[in-house]
C-alpha cells in the first residue's frame, strides 16, 4: 500500500532435475501466503469490489476494481491494490461492492450491495496492519501473493527479481507459513504441478547476502516412487530495506499536544476566542495535525498540556499542566478529547505568560528516555502565539531530545514574528547548545498564517498545514531507528496486544 516497501529483491530461483525438466516444459513459480488482502463475507452468488480514493471534499476518484469471484459466500480477492501512501495526508478510501449477474462491462448494470469507508491511515495504523470490517482470512487457507513470469526452454530457469512488501507477504508475522508452488506451464492452461515447499519470512531472511536452497517436493510422486528424492530445488536470495510503513508496526506513535494559553478567550480579537460558528486558530491546528496522527496511535490516548497560565485555586503560574485537570492522568481520549480539554481549560485557568518551551519538552523527553528500544516514538505538537521566552533552555532541551525517539512540531499562530523559532528548525543549520550540536533534526516549525486559505476555507487550510508539518516525521523516525540499529519487530496479533483501557 505504500510507495516505499520492504523488499524481497535480487531473488534468483531455478529448478534442476533433468529427469523431470526438459526443453519442452516452461516452469512457473507461484508464491502464496496466508493473509487475504480483501475478503468480503456477503450472501451473494458472485461479486466485485471497486476501490475509490477521495480528496478533501470527498471527490471520489476511481482507483481499482477486483476480479469477479463466482459462487461463493466468502470471496477472497486475489488482485492486489498498490496505493501511494503519504503519512502527512488524510487519504480517504471507499469500497463499493456489487453483485455481478450479467456479462455487461458497465458496472452500473450490476446490483449495488453496499459500501464502506475508511482512511489509508486507519488500515496502516490498525492492529497487525489490518482493518476489519467483517473482513478476514485467518482460517489457515492460502491466498495467492505473487506469480512469476514464465521462463521457457531451459532446464534451469532463473526468474526475474521481484519486490513485495513484507506486510503483503505475511502481514508482519515473520513465522507465518509461506508456500511456494512450482508448475510446468502449458499454453492451454492445464499447468502440471511439479512440486512445492514451505518456508517463512524469517527463514527467507537468513539468506540475506547469500542464498537459501529449498527442495521442491511432490507428495504424490513421493508416495509412488521409492527412490524419489525431490522434483528439483529452488534457490532464493533476499535483500531487505526497512521503511516507515513497516517500522511503524513495531512502535507505538504517541501524540502529545499542548497550547500556549495566553490571551483573553472572551474577546473576539483573541486567538483563543471560542466562536460558536467556527474554530479558532489553536483548535484548527490541533485538529489538523491530531486527526492525521491519531490513526497511527495504538490506544488513541493523548497526554495534553497547557503552558503559560495561572491555575486555580492559588493562581500559581505553570508551564506544563495537564489540560485534563488531572495531574495523575494527563491523557485525553482521541483528538476530540484534546479539543474538549482545551476549551474546558480556557474556562478554568487564567491565561498568562511567558512562553517557556523547555519545561514541556523536557517532560516528554523524560518519557521518551524510558523507551529507546523502538517500541514507542513520541511526537510533540506545540502551538504558540508568542516568541519563546526561554530560548537558551529550549535549545538545550532540543539537543538532548534529538538523541531520543522523539519529534517536535511547532505551529505558530497569529501575527507575531517567529524569526527566532527558525533557529530550532534544523533544516539548514543543526541546533546547538553549549558547543553540542543536535544529533539529528527533530524540529519542524511553521507559521499557520502561511497556510491559511484566502477564501476562508478552514478545511483546506488545515489540510495544507498538516501536509507540511508532518512530512518530515517518517524520515525522522527512520533516522532514529537506523542509527540505533533497531529493526522492526513482527506485528503482534490481537491476542498478544496488551489490554488497554479505552473509552471510545
From TrEMBL:
Cited Gene3D superfamilies: C2 domain
Gene Ontology BP terms: cellular response to calcium ion
Stored SUPFAM superfamilies: C2 domain (Calcium/lipid-binding domain, CaLB) (SSF49562), vWA-like (SSF53300)
Keyword set includes NADP: no
A Pfam family of this chain: C2
Family in the record: Belongs to the copine family.
Name of this chain's protein: C2 domain-containing protein
Gene: CPNE9
Amino acid at each position: 500500500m505504500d510507495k516505499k516497501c520492504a523488499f524481497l529483491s535480487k531473488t534468483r530461483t531455478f529448478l534442476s532435475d533433468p529427469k523431470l525438466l526438459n526443453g519442452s516444459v516452461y516452469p512457473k513459480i507461484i508464491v502464496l501466503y496466508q493473509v487475504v488482502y480483501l475478503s468480503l463475507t456477503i450472501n451473494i452468488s458472485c461479486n466485485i469490489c471497486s476501490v475509490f480514493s477521495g480528496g478533501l471534499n470527498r471527490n471520489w476518484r476511481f482507483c481499482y476494481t477486483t476480479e469477479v469471484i463466482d459462487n461463493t459466500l466468502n470471496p477472497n480477492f486475489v488482485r492486489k491494490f498498490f496505493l501511494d501512501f503519504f503519512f502527512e495526508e488524510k487519504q480517504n478510501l471507499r469500497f463499493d461492492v456489487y453483485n455481478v449477474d450479467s456479462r455487461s462491462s458497465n458496472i452500473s448494470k450490476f446490483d449495488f450491495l453496499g459500501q464502506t469507508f475508511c482512511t489509508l491511515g486507519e488500515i496502516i495504523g490498525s492492529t497487525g496492519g489490518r482493518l476489519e470490517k467483517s473482513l478476514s482470512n485467518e482460517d489457515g487457507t492460502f491466498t495467492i501473493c505473487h506469480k512469476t513470469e514464465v521462463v521457457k526452454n531451459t532446464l534451469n530457469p532463473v526468474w526475474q527479481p521481484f519486490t513485495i512488501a513484507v506486510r503483503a507477504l505475511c502481514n508482519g508475522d515473520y513465522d507465518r507459513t509461506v508456500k511456494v508452488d512450482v508448475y510446468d506451464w502449458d499454453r492451454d492452461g492445464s499447468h502440471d504441478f511439479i512440486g512445492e515447499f514451505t518456508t517463512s519470512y524469517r527463514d527467507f531472511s537468513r539468506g540475506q547476502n547469500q542464498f537459501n536452497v529449498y527442495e521442491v517436493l511432490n507428495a504424490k510422486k513421493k508416495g509412488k516412487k521409492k527412490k524419489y528424492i525431490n522434483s528439483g530445488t529452488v534457490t532464493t536470495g533476499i535483500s531487505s530495506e526497512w521503511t516507515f510503513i513497516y517500522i511503524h508496526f513495531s512502535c507505538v506513535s504517541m501524540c502529545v499536544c499542548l497550547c500556549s494559553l495566553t490571551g483573553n478567550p472572551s474577546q473576539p480579537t483573541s486567538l483563543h476566542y471560542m466562536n460558536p460558528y467556527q474554530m479558532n486558530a489553536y483548535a484548527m491546528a490541533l485538529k489538523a495535525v491530531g486527526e492525521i496522527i491519531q490513526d497511527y496511535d495504538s490506544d488513541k490516548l493523548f497526554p495534553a498540556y497547557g503552558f503559560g497560565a495561572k491555575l486555580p485555586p492559588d493562581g500559581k503560574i505553570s508551564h506544563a499542566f495537564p489540560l485534563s485537570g488531572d495531574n495523575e492522568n494527563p491523557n485525553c481520549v482521541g483528538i476530540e478529547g484534546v479539543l474538549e480539554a482545551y476549551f474546558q481549560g480556557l474556562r478554568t485557568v487564567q491565561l498568562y505568560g511567558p512562553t517557556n518551551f523547555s519545561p514541556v519538552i523536557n517532560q516528554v523527553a523524560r518519557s521518551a528516555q524510558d523507551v529507546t528500544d523502538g517500541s514507542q516514538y513520541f511526537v510533540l505538537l506545540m502551538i504558540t502565539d508568542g516568541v519563546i521566552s526561554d530560548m537558551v533552555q529550549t535549545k538545550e532541551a532540543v539537543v538532548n531530545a534529538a538523541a531520543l525517539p522523539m519529534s517536535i512540531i511547532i505551529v505558530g499562530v497569529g501575527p507575531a514574528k517567529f524569526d527566532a523559532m527558525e533557529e530550532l528548525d534544523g533544516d539548514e543549520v543543526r541546533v546547538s547548545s553549549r558547543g553540542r550540536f543536535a544529533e539529528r533534526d527533530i524540529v519542524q516549525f511553521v507559521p499557520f498564517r502561511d497556510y491559511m486559505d484566502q477564501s476562508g476555507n478552514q478545511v483546506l487550510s488545515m489540510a495544507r498545514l498538516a501536509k507540511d508539518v508532518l512530512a518530515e516525521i517518517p524520515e525522522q523516525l527512520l533516522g532514529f531507528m537506523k542509527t540505533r540499529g533497531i529493526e522492526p519487530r513482527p506485528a503482534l496479533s490481537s491476542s498478544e496486544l496488551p489490554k488497554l483501557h479505552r473509552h471510545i
